[in-house]
Amino acid sequence: MKKIYTMQNQIQKYEWGSKDYIAKLLQVKNSSNEAWAELWMSAHEKAPSFLPEINLSLNTAIANNPLDFLGEEVAINYDNKLPYLFKILSAERPLSIQAHPNLKQAKAGFARENKSGISLSDFYRNYKDDNHKPELICALTEFHAMCGFRQATEIIDYFTQLDLNRCFSEFTKFEKDSTPQNWEKVLIEILTASVEKKLHILKTVVNNIDLLSDEFVRNWISKLLNYYPNDIGVISPLFLNTFILQPGEAIFLKAGVLHAYLYGTGVEIMANSDNVLRGGLTPKNMDVKELVSILCWEMKKPEIQSFSPEQKLISYQIPTNEFSLQRVNLVGELDLVNQRPTMIIVIEGNLIVTCGKETKKISQGESVFIISEAQNINIKGQGLLFIASTNS
To answer: Most C-beta atoms within 10 A of its C-beta, which of 24, 129, 238, 299?
Structure first.
């Protein structure tokens, strides 16, 4: 049985995507000039990768032979399915403000909406599957993002500078007693504001934006006003940690963390799910009640995983079993002892992947799937690559 398979991956076209990065990575022309937002390396039913050597999609190949492709442990633990989804994400414009449910919430929400007869393609559908979606994003370019609630003192300071503290009746309670419980009441008031109140708030922001002391936050609010002039989500940099990841830096997002990716390109890996609950900066469905019910209310900065430029191999810290990620700046060769289903994508350079008697040449933009049966893998060449697998 073959152990290394070429992957032909599907492009997801969303309006926030970049028109050039993924095309340049794949060394093809984007002749339609569409926004290519994500490149999925996946066995997800929505957009599975194709394995041309056996003329099957990856999810079908796994379903036909789960023990060889996944290994016994992964096959048993994850119901004969690949537990991770691997992506290149390239954003020219901000993504929606969003959060993802934990496993218990996802199972309950999926079952509830199925019982209600809501189609998976329905505009108002919240849960597309019954899985959670912890994720990690690693920057390939300078990457701007918002993630997690700011500390209370920062939120109060920024709202006060823009004279927004008087726009919300619950904010006075939050100023006096800055607990997550009181912040929850403020956020609900923000997200459920009437059209008239939203317009008043946005007008206040426009009139007072120059009073905001933080230049980075000020600039991003101005950009969001241009993209979404009538969306209350434009004030989210006031209450979400807003920062830049440099290439190689990463953040891990657990369930319930409110976030939005704003600009840049990164490698993203997550549990095999497409569950998203949105809270702004989008024309898509926003179910505020459901979103609030799954949120994590911690008020702290995300931990940025950063490394020295001299490091050739970076293994990111990921506190979940579904996936792992390594960034390798290879000059020479690397040996992997593999007992897990693995994907490799080349970002720059040319590599030769060998497993036993099998050899596969891969270059920029190309990727391979290596079955769990493959034991010893050797990678030779020069280039930047990412290796995705399970964590156990």
So the answer is: 238
